[in-house]
Design goal:
Strand content: 15-25%
Helix content: 25-40%
Number of domains: 1
Bound molecules: flavin mononucleotide
Number of helices: 4
Structural class: alpha+beta
Shape: globular
Length: 163
């Protein structure tokens, strides 16, 4: 039997569309607890770096910090989202990262936002509390479907600061 030329199977592309293979989109939502007292400046710094990196990876999403709890949604190709999530999980600025939802999606919720910042103020804060099972905002206790609806409501109310 002739071995001949073997075709090398390349891994999934991390960036850019592949016309021969439509992109499978994934949405990953996780929560974590901030380490120490992180303020608005720290979060803006995270957003600035995220917007630069995520644009190159074709990842979109949103991030919020409420009472020391981060909630972040990442959308993009499965490979890009997985790689990014594992890098973020190693960041010493937070701990107790927990994936709350991971699913294939038909379309992006965050459109052109490489990383939107959701200010935990005013109407946004009321909405966050309304979606939480207890008196305080606790994304760890939320169902995946509730997280999806929460983010789409935040986006539709345009209370997210996009890039
Ligand atoms: C809660 C949280 C969310 C983050 N989200 C992102 C993100 O969406 N994209 C990103 O590139 N880095 C994000 N980071 C920062 C990364 O952990 C890491 O510091 C950064 O990707 C390093 O980028 P650099 O090598 O370009 O400096 C996040 C960090 C934290 C604490």
């Amino acid at each position: 039997m002739s071995v001949g030329k073997r075709r090398i199977a390349h891994g999934p592309r991390l960036t850019g569309p592949n016309p021969e293979r439509p992109e499978v989109l994934i949405r990953l939502t996780y929560a974590s607890r901030s380490k120490g007292m992180l303020g608005a400046v720290d979060v803006k710094d995270i957003i600035r770096i995220s917007q630069r990196n995520n644009a190159a990876l074709g990842v979109t999403g949103a991030l919020l910090l409420v009472n020391g709890v981060f909630l972040q949604c990442l959308e993009g190709s499965s490979a890009a989202v997985n790689t990014l999530y594992h890098r973020i999980a190693l960041d010493p600025r937070h701990h107790q990262t927990s994936i709350l939802a991971f699913a294939e999606i038909d379309r992006r919720c965050f459109g052109g936002w490489s990383m939107g910042l959701v200010p935990a103020l005013g109407e946004n804060l009321d909405l966050l509390k309304a979606y939480s099972p207890g008196p305080d905002f606790d994304p760890f206790a939320m169902r995946p479907s509730a997280l999806d609806t929460l983010f789409s409501e935040l986006v539709s109310r345009a209370r997210v600061l996009s890039d």
